[in-house]
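EI: anyone free to look at a 207-residue chain?
SC: sure, send it
EI:
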Amino acid sequence: MYAPEPFAVTDAGEIETLLPGLTFGALITHGQGGLFASHLPVIYRACEGVLAGHLARANPHRDRAGEGEAMMIFEGASAYVSPNGYPSKLENGRVVPTWNYEVVHVYGKIRWRDETDWLLANVTDLTNRFEAGQPKPWAVSDAPGDFIDRLLRAVVGVELRVDRVEAKRKLSQNRSEADRLGVIATLAASPSDRDREMAGVMRLGQG
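SC: here you go
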């Protein structure tokens, strides 16, 4: 990934804190049939150094994956940045549009998992994670056991061993403080939830 110095996240400690926050990514592999991608939620297991999720067994990704390195791409906040947000536009007009964004690329070998116990644990872990914010969280145990068993037979597990991580935050760090504050104000006033999310991320970056 192209990540110029102002935007690259290189601190090992910071990268380690990013991994537990990763939720939904694109798994990309390259086999004899070429590139293949699947989108799936995952959970980071720090003790094992893997991202773990599952796919529909009918998904041909397992057969298409090949034996080489795989990667997962995770996107964070992103937003279009108009030159109208830059005070410097009035000074010299030497400004152009851009896009601010956060992205993490995780590289490593993948391992496919068929064990029922592993699949049940993964489904349970993912459910508990994403149900945590619900007023009355749903649990896997709320569904009939035979129903869950049947669904587990319809999925295959996948682990991506975390061998290498590239992370990038492009948050107008290459602009003057006045321009950065102008972008934040413009995005914060936008009716778009995406724009306002980016404004919040940029505010944190200012601190």
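EI: The chain has a mean pLDDT of 95.
SC: 👍
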